[in-house]
Amino acid sequence: MGTAQQQVLEELARLTEEFSTAPSLDAMPRRTLADKDVAGPTSAHVIEEIHTPLNFAYTTFTTGSTAFQNIVGVTWPELPERAAAGARALRRAGACPGDRVLLCYAPLGNVFSRGAFEGASVEPIFLPHSSRDAFLVALCREKPRVVVGESSFLRVALEDAKKLGIWEAIPEGVHLLCAGTPLDMELLPLAEECGIGVHDLYGCQEFGWLVMDGAPLRDDLTLVPDAEREGWAILVAGGLPTGDSFPMGGAGHVLNADGPIHTYARQRTTPELEVVVRACTAQSEMTLERACRSILRIKGRIVRPAPGVRIAAETNELALVEAWPSGRSVAVVGDQEKTKLFDCLLEAQEQYQATAKSDPLWMKGR
After folding, report:
1. 315 and 279 Cβ atoms separated by less than 8 Å
2. Which tens digits make up the pLDDT trace of 245-262?
């Protein structure tokens, strides 16, 4: 390499370091587990760094109780409603500003989102190790106001406390927010014996927390009668089916006489429901088609435009239909308030389309 070429390269390197608009790896923003308020251990995960697109508030995974975990994307427009529902659940469980909330399983923090903890003015804390022994130590020493965990795990841990002779060390007035799996009924008499409050929290990584003690946590929930089960209803969140059906009414939820949704007895909806968009607020059919594909990828729900779909409508009109082969229409959700989540996902798609890729490596040569 000649001297002139060397000088050019050195000057180019200097200009790149001083004036480049593309960040180096060290300068890229980093979103850690602590930044998301989920910095706790589990026995089932590897911590792996990934490049997360800027149009996602964060990414997480489904619990995968019956299959492999699926990746979930949480967009910025849906974050306020999601955080508000989480904060509402914490307050209903008795959390007061300044309280600590112990999360037994760190990824449950992603269902709340950091904004929920900030909205309730509480501090999330985590177990030092993913075990029942570590939970009992944290419960008795840290004395959290609210504990979030899987109900059978909590039940067995309380039984361990009895066997170990530390039953009386359990703090009074603590509330157990049972989440992740259906409520273990054997926990209820055990908790009552110790003066512990129990709550049944239902939701998922895709949509956040939706129902607590049989009562909705969000205004955009719809209950559709389940044709396969008399007295049951299919829960629809923001126009998208959750995939779960619940017994309704009767004497109310086992923990709340005014809660009509028996979330502890849920069953998967059969057959699965898909969404056919008859009308939407998106400004172009291309935006709608892209949003439908995105919803499948980040929320695991099949959404597709109807032939002749109305674009730029004042309200969304979403038909819920049984999956192939029947294709039978089950219900139509046409209220704008009840399709708020769907609207947020359309908004996220429009925002993404309006933002050009800023990474020069994606710019094609001419």
Report:
1. yes
2. 999 988 899 999 999 999
Rounded distance between C-alpha atoms, residue 73 and residue 77, angstroms: 12
Measure the CA–CA gap between 151 and 352, rounded to whole angstroms: 39
Q: Give the three-class secondary structure for 320.
A: strand
Cis peptide bond N-terminal to 80, omega within 30: no
The residue ranges of DSSP E strands in 213-325, in sequence order, are 215-216, 221-225, 232-237, 240-247, 267-268, 273-279, 303-310, 317-322
User: Cβ(62)–Cβ(298) under 8 Å?
Assistant: no
Residues 6+ apart with CB under 8 A from 125: 100, 101, 102, 103, 138, 142, 144
DSSP per residue over 98-133, as a string?
Answer: T-EEEESSTTHHHHH-HHHHHHHT-EEEE-SSSSHH
Q: Give which of 225, 201, 215 is closest to 258, Cα–Cα.
A: 215
Instruction: For the chain, list residues with pLDDT below 70.
Output: 64-66, 356-366
Indicate the pTM of the whole model: 0.92
Measured between alpha carbons, how far is 217 from 201 in angstroms, rounded to an integer? 10
